[in-house]
Structures are given as structure tokens and as C-alpha cells.
Amino acid sequence: MALNRSHDPVVRELMAKARTTTRSINQKIMFNEDYLNLGQTRPKWTNLEECCQAAISRLDLGSVKVSIGLQGFEVLADPMLEKVFYRLMENSLLHGGALSTITISSKLTASGLVVTVHDDGRGISPGDRKKLFNWEFRGRRGHSLHLVAEVLHLSGMSIQETGYDGSGSRFEISIPPALYRQRAVLEPGERVQAPVTI
Q: pLDDT band at residue 26, thresholds of 50, 70 and 90?
């Protein structure tokens, strides 16, 4: 409120910095809580589409559309799986530049299920791709993707970035057969149909 009322540019700048600092502190507190909770709860069967919808409900998408093609799939994972999709989409929104769409899709392969989170933003450089999931990637800002990798690792899954610089980021989550189920049986290489766009 003080930021909106003051006409002094110095006061407005100080208030803006204070708000940014407060937001940063809150994010760090939330991250620390998430990290401390890793592996504290037994894995459970989670509907992927519902999980993504819950993550989306906590994001400010602006004009960005999200297309989801995960109907029917459930995975046995750490209850923090929602935060995986939240962090991946948040990463797209923060670093993707002028993106317009995030697509979350699934594909069966000979080795299991692959869930892909892909955006049409600026993409990730080859140099950064190798370090994305490291604890110290980009200083302290890399922690969120490190958390993503840890949650998936604890659930018996893995993640890699397979996009191209300039063509959007593309995160692929590999899930072994014992950790997913679906009522409809798909052939290897077949995608789930009828994606939902938000």
C-alpha cells in the first residue's frame, strides 16, 4: 500500500526492493521445507493429470496456455510429485522468454512411460543443459531443478532435458513399467489422445 501511495521515486524504489527481498525469502523458506520433506512419506498412486492440474492452479500463467495429454495414467511416486510439475512449469515461465504454450504429454516406449514437459520459449543452451540439475547451477537459483531431480530419483524415475537452444525447453521424465498404470492399453510409440488445454 505504501508503494502505491508514495510519489517519491526513492521511496518507491526502496519499497520495490523490499517486496522483491520478501518474495525471495519466502521462496527460500518454501524450498527448504520441501527439501526437508523429501522421502518422508511413502509413495502413493497419483493421477498425472490431476497432479498437473493442481500444480497449474498455483501458477500465474498470464497468457500462456497449457496443453495436457496424460489421461488415464497414474504413477507410484513421492507425494511431492506435484511440485515436480510446478517447478518445471515455473521454470518455463521464468526463463522461457516470450513463450505462449506449455505442453505436457505422454508416450509409451519399449522401456516404459515417458512424460514430456515442453515449452515454445527460448530453450536452454548446450552448456547449461549438462548442469541444469546440479545444486549450484546458476548460483542458488538452480535449487528448484535439483529438487525436481531428487524427487524423481527417490521415486525410481529419472529426468533429462532434450530440447534445442532456440526451440524451447523439453524435459523428459522416464518412468519404468512397475511405476505406472493405465486402464487403456497403448502400443509403444502411441500417444494419449485428446489433450486438454487450459
A: low
